[in-house]
Fold this sequence. Notes:
717 residues, mainly beta, Maltoporin, Chain A, 22-stranded antiparallel beta barrel
Amino acid sequence: MKKILAPVALLLGTLAFSQTEKDTLASKVKEIEEVTFVARKPTVESKVDRTVFNVANSSILAGNTTWDVLRMTPLVSIDNNDALKAEGESVTVYINDRKSVFTGKELKEYLQTMPADNLMKIEVITSPSSRYEATGSVINIVLKKRDDEGLKGSVTFNNRQNTQNSQYTNLNLNYHKKNFTQTLVGGYSDNVWVQKNSFTNTRYQDNIVTEGSTNSIYKGKNPSISSTSEYELNDKNTMGVILEAYQGKRNNTSEANGTRSKNNELEYSYDQNQNSSTLNRTFGTNFFYKYYDKEKSKILDINLGTNYDGEFEDNNFIKNKVFSTTTDIQQIGVISDVENRNYYIKVDYTQPLGKSGGNFEVGGKMDFNNNIIPNQLYGNQLTGLSTGDIFHYEDNINSLYANYSKTFFKKLETRIGMRYEYIDYKMRQDVAGTSRNDSYGKFLPNILIKYSFSDKYDLSLTYNKNLWRPWYSEFNPFMQPTNDGFYSRGNIDLNPNPSDRLYLKFGFLKKYFLSARYTFTDQDYWTNYVTEGDKIISEPANFIGKVQKYFLYANTNQSFIKNKLNVNLSFGWNYLDNSDFNKKNELRADTNYISYWAGSTNLTYTNLFNKNINLSAWVEVSNQNNGNSIANKTNVFHNLSATKIFPKTQMELSLQLMNIFARPVFDSTTFSPDGSQRNSSRSDWYGFSLTFVKRFGNQKVKENTKTDVEKNSGGGK
């Protein structure tokens, strides 16, 4: 930790001293108007229901993709499987208030083709209103909106050196004339990701221990394009269409080595080679109509859309098992051809209610999903395995919501909301004949209260009930090999995970915030490991038992040296009580109570020495504990960058250093009733990158207005 903080502190001290001297000299000469910087918003805003990361004018954008900026967003973390989390819990990602079709690694690859230069802000909504779907916290990526006449845009070239070399290229075009606006964003990435992993799997019965390591190389060539056409019929009515297309062409090679022992006696050793190729195509459409009466604060927003996601994958495994006297060569291949179709219609309406200053919002959504996963195995070792099956999943989710917000006595802000969701879903396997038809409805309330003692002191309280549903592929019970020598499958009997969250926040002097959060759940679904014959299988499973989480956090955002240095710092204490959860699931965890510190800081310095040089630094201390997985190591992530701007030619050149002082390692143990699995993965997010940006046209932007009124009232802002 000292290795990280020392150079950052030294850097800041040097900058502060040198800038003070430079400003004294600069006051005697005429400054260039193009490089004058005035901070209008703090980099990080702590609001009642969300934390807002304002990045539009921040040097943190330079040399980064949207995915990189997400990694550096306060409260957001990313695990070794590239899953986004907010305050350690799963999230749903929105882009301009539109739910993204991507999840997991596909979301990462898509956001890596999206230039960070196009970002306005990132909202981490930890207490979302009833407007949002009932899946816990929400990350809303808000893009810039350019409406100056003519053509403008930028092109970005990035070369990144991690373990191996990667390249990213982005093109961003915007055209506006009178009432018509056209935005076109294209990206292409040719990247290589290397991951080394070690594992130890222990089965309590007969003390069966399997341990080894894997070395994987992922290569991907991913083009993407998105188009937004918007036409203003008049000052109140707007209509448009959003079109998105993405392709991921990937291949993966992996080498695994391991040994298995029983009661401390070696049974066999093995090595396994994996080769896979994947082709993924995604197409999305969204037709929207918006009525916005600014004088009466009325908004009607209608969205009609479709999403298609198809993925063809061929995975080939060759495994050599060496016993004391014999060698067994196994070959298993897996072919999958996944097709997912989604259709939806969404309506939101907002207006003031009465003359007392209240605001009412109502809306609903109809979602239809039709997903098919065909799997086929080939090879010479298929005994005990299904050689092929087709998994079908269909659902219809209908939701209605209402929010009412009002301010009393100019000091007490309130918001109360209710969301009702009803899902009807069915799934089946063609060959095995396994099937499930089910349906349920849930009421999900939320409450927000904020009292301002003065313009410098306020206290707020929020409550949310959430419901996290299993992803459709997690239901698929088809078993197949994994790259470490084990097997995996889904679980058709998975149940959703409800949770409750209570959040208390105290703000003072407009820049200091203290918060406390309590969340609990009585059931959940997490990764489980089971043994069947000689196969060790990972699968999601239902776990009952109460889990209670307590959080205490402090946050501040400060500006120094005439708003050139902006510092955001957050630090907190986390305490998890898993005692009931571990007891009811017979988990032999090392401890039932987990206590750890976590925090992050974002530092940006603008116009160093008045030479159009911007600097940024980011440091995060995190420890990821999820359900029955306990972290064994605390990571310290860091990122340092410097950007030189050339105003006359509208060009930028950036150098970025990633985790150069300490390479992150994700190390955790997952506990099951009959055993445990420890995984330790070395992250490939380290090294350096060079970025060149060329801009053209008028780069002036304005705040994106495609937001609902509830964000401007009831504590949302």
